[in-house]
Design goal:
Elements (H helix, E strand, L loop, with lengths): L3 E9 L5 H11 L20 H6 L6 E7 L2 E7 L7 H8 L4 E7 L6 H12 L4 E6 L9 H10 L4 E3 L21 H11 L4 H8 L6 H13 L4 E5 L8 H11 L12 E9 L5 E9 L1 E3 L3 E7 L5 E7 L2 E4 L10 H4 L1 E3 L3 E5 L9 E2 L4 H4 L8 E7 L5 H14 L6 E2 L5 E5 L2 H15 L3 E3 L3 E2 L2 E4 L3 E5 L11 E8 L6 E5 L8 H14 L8 E2 L2 E9 L7 H19 L1 E5 L1 E9 L3 H10 L3 E8 L2 E9 L3 H11 L5 E6 L3 E2 L17 H9 L7
Parallel strand pairs: 1-3, 1-4, 4-5, 5-7, 6-7, 22-26, 25-27
Antiparallel strand pairs: 2-3, 8-9, 8-16, 9-15, 10-14, 11-12, 11-16, 13-15, 17-19, 17-20, 17-21, 18-19, 22-28, 23-24, 24-27, 28-33, 29-31, 29-32, 30-31
Helix pairs in contact: 6-8, 14-15, 16-17
């Protein structure tokens, strides 16, 4: 009977062979009867038509197998940078990871980005060097490259023989050889002063003790065992499976307590209903149980909603012994389940209290916005509905309706756009026309402004009194709504109407961009019973808030990314010049052996251009690590953005109300 569960991520640079490795692990451990092929489009985890055609993973998928009393839930993640948001969501639910490298291509740019994130999270990680049977495969040289460019503390677990040939083999490295034990012990001594003292005295640990020390440091994310093999032939995969059992112990999920978990994927069933993949960290969830979930909206508000579990199927291997119907309908801490019945669910929604470490973003958000129109007029509503359904699976694309009926979405890059276009055609029968992408800007208040409108009868007046103050907040804080009035001063429905309308109004500021990093304070209210309605407060709030924002002033900021670029020594001048020419602020440089690291702040709209130029400037050896940077004021004329129907007050109405004598400052 299965007693423990390990949620394991398979990550890699695109084409390194992670999906093939996933398939081999499932096949060798009896979870599937036939070995699938990426080229043939018959793999277990790449189930979508686009994934099969392109031979890449687009969405995270889960499959399970058992080894002994351990169930391993394999989470296969995308490798292409355009789908980095899928990887981020997977990282939040993993207990450990296997990072796959190609023995031919070696350490690639995306490999380093992923490893940086895994090490930052201290997520226990094994390395698997794949394709040792391919022509051009390396072993010792690649290990040196891994230590220099990926992770300095690694312990080889395989002996690679006849690399680069069909006869390549990767048997387990024996620690009976004192020299092998000594090299491993020297690596472990970097984080163990007691072991270092023993080595200085010539006391070399035995193989069993050394293995226990390696397991402890691997579990802490300090050291990374390296296995080698070939996913296509199965060479070395058995040793990797044994390494997973030895070095990636499953976490001890807390018993009892409230249910807490994360929705990291959403798919559609045959009838179109949503199926949410829920990773549970504590407590348990049963079929027909009512759940309360939450998500943070773009404006900063926390949306809470409920739903009843209409169906629940825990992810289990096909050969799980003792897994009866009751086991499959009860999701316990540490497991992953497919949940039906949550109509409002979206990727990223949380069950239970917040976990800041797991909910903190590790990659930059999308920085491009593109307008999408249907190929034939009259299908705008259908296109928006289809894009909204896709946003349930990837909420970062954030659909919005423009004033002319078109829909705008946020994107990472061209490949993601191509996939969205193909899915619209296949799944919804819609041909989409994409405009040229443009960067996403934001607005911030330049100072403090406030405005109050008193209620009263008359044309254009409302039976509502609202006073709002808007002021800047520290960068990165988002939007905060504060009530400086007593709850009893208004019916609760009126309070909710003001807050909802205020947050929605800030989706577009004076220049048309989303207003962020500000505090909105409701400092004066009043109503008249029975004339006042919630609609009065909902309709008046945008006018008062925009007038207060005008008093404060608004500055347009462009999103930036903080880049860390590692390049060969002799390319520093060329790279620095290219960055400066594109308006980057070079913060610092750092010498790292044969390489230089350049730290720069660059507008998001120019990041793709820099990424495209770097290979030619660095002989293809540049590695770029990006994270969200501090937005900076636009240099030059501030760009304006056309309004969207998401704003309850359009610009023409706003300009009229600015001149209206009925709006009197109090």
């Amino acid at each position: 009977m299965i007693r423990t569960t390990l949620n394991l991520g398979i990550l890699a640079h695109v084409d390194a062979g992670k999906t093939s490795l996933t398939e081999r692990l499932l096949f060798d451990n009896g979870a599937i009867e036939r070995l699938g092929s990426v080229d043939a489009g018959s793999t277990q985890t790449d189930t979508g038509d686009l994934e099969r055609e392109r031979g890449i993973t687009i969405r995270s998928a889960v499959a399970a197998f058992t080894t002994g009393d351990l169930q391993i839930n394999l989470v296969d993640t995308p490798g292409h940078p355009d789908f980095i948001a899928e990887v981020e969501r997977a990282l939040s639910v993993l207990d450990g990871a296997v990072l796959v490298l190609s023995a031919v291509e070696g350490v690639q740019a995306q490999t380093r980005v992923l490893m940086r994130s895994l090490r930052r999270l201290r997520l226990p990680t094994l390395l698997f060097v794949n394709k040792i049977d391919r022509m051009g495969a390396r072993h010792e040289a690649l290990l040196a490259d891994i230590r220099a460019r990926l992770a300095p503390l690694v312990v080889p677990m395989s002996e690679v023989r006849a690399a680069g040939t069909a006869a390549a083999r990767a048997p387990r490295r024996s620690w009976a050889d004192p020299r092998a034990r000594e090299r491993a012990a020297e690596t472990l001594a970097e984080h163990d002063e007691g072991l270092l003292a023993r080595l200085v005295e010539g006391d070399l640990p035995a193989a069993g003790e050394l293995r226990a020390l390696l397991a402890a440091q691997t579990a802490a994310g300090l050291v990374h065992p390296v296995f080698s093999g070939s996913a296509l032939t199965g060479e070395g995969v058995a040793e990797l499976t044994a390494g997973i059992r030895t070095f990636l112990p499953p976490p001890r999920a807390p018993l009892g307590g409230p249910a807490r978990g994360t929705v990291f994927a959403v798919e559609r069933g045959e009838g179109g209903e949503k199926i949410a993949y829920l990773r549970l960290f504590s407590g348990e969830v049963r079929a027909r149980q009512r759940l309360s979930l939450r998500r943070r909206e773009p404006g900063g508000a926390v949306l809470r909603y409920g739903g009843r579990v209409a169906g629940l199927e825990t992810v289990r291997a096909a050969d799980s012994a003792g897994a009866g119907p009751q086991d499959r309908e009860c999701l316990r801490a540490g497991g992953i389940g497919r949940v039906r019945g949550l109509a409002a669910v979206r990727v990223g929604d949380r069950l239970g209290e917040a976990d800041r470490d797991r909910e903190r973003p590790h990659f930059s958000p999308p920085g491009l916005e593109v307008t999408v129109r249907p190929g034939r007029p009259g299908l705008e509503a259908r296109l928006h509905a289809a894009l909204t359904r896709l946003a349930d699976e990837d909420p970062l694309i954030r659909t919005r309706v423009a004033s002319d009926g078109a829909t705008s979405v946020l994107l990472y890059g061209e490949v993601q756009q191509e996939v969205i276009a193909a899915r619209l055609q296949r799944d919804f029968g819609l041909t989409a026309v994409f405009a040229r992408p443009r960067p996403v800007y934001v607005e911030r208040p330049a100072g403090v402004g406030e405005f109050c409108e008193e209620m009263g009868p008359g044309v254009g007046r409302f039976w509502a009194t609202i006073g709002l103050r808007v002021e800047p907040a520290p960068p990165g804080r988002g939007v905060r709504f504060v009530r400086d009035v007593e709850w009893g001063a208004l019916p609760r429905a009126f309070h909710r109407a003001v807050e909802e309308a205020a947050l929605r109004t800030l989706e577009q500021g004076l220049y048309g961009w989303e207003v962020t990093d500000c505090t909105v304070t409701l400092y004066r209210v009043g109503y008249h019973s029975p004339d006042s309605k919630a609609a009065d407060f909902r309709d008046l709030t945008p006018m008062v808030l925009l007038r207060a924002l005008r008093e404060a002033g608004s500055r347009v900021h462009e999103p930036c990314q903080a880049l860390e670029i590692e390049i060969p020594r002799d390319t520093l001048s060329a790279v620095a010049g290219a960055l400066a020419a594109r308006g980057a602020d070079i913060v610092a440089t750092e010498e790292r052996g044969e390489s230089w690291a350049v730290f720069a702040e660059l507008p998001t709209r120019l990041v793709q251009e820099v990424r495209a130029a770097l290979p030619g400037l660095s002989r293809g050896e540049a590695a770029v690590f990006a994270r969200p940077g501090a937005n900076r004021p636009v240099r030059g004329r501030a760009p304006r953005r056309a309004r969207t129907d998401g704003n309850p007050l359009n610009r023409e109405e706003y300009l009229r109300h600015l001149a209206a004598p009925s709006l009197t400052r109090v």
